[in-house]
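Example with several molecule types.
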Amino acid sequence: GQSLEQPSEVTAVEGAIVQINCTYQTSGFYGLSWYQQHDGGAPTFLSYNALDGLEETGRFSSFLSRSDSYGYLLLQELQMKDSASYFCAVSRGANNLFFGTGTRLTVIP
Amino acid sequence: EADIYQTPRYLVIGTGKKITLECSQTMGHDKMYWYQQDPGMELHLIHYSYGVNSTEKGDLSSESTVSRIRTEHFPLTLESARPSHTSQYLCASSESWGSTDTQYFGPGTRLTVL
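Resulting structure tokens for the full complex:
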């Protein structure tokens, strides 16, 4: 079977740093992706980790530990527009993704 | 910039009607996907295609069917809509050999079956 676990909700203050964790259990693992989805919108790609370590893209960073089946998304200098749902997704090969349940991030002033 | 389109954006229809949700992409991607997503919930893969004349069922069993006659077009059909089909349907595409497995999503079709 396959499963991905994320916290359902996270609240953080504008300007702060927040970390969203993702643990996975899957057969066939090629990498871990993160997607952002605003209410009523489509998911958009944020980052991808195929190898262990940290990937940085502007205010967003993503980390993967394959040995621990664990990854996280780090958002720095939070802005109000970062309020959205964040999904981790496991790549199972051939561009086939399995999505987690999503974490709803609320940024407060 | 991703160019993937879905029509209609919103559809309210009665039980028993046949519907087709359209999805088109202009990026020349071989791989296309359909996801079902209820409000505030995860995305469930219901169909995918690796190219023309290739279609596969996804993780979530669905009564819908798909076809892939042209690379850019991946319509989803429900022969007889039921209230349990009420959901958002998201179409996505990706490059065949991309290193990041990035999927580009359309804006979605929000379907309500009365």
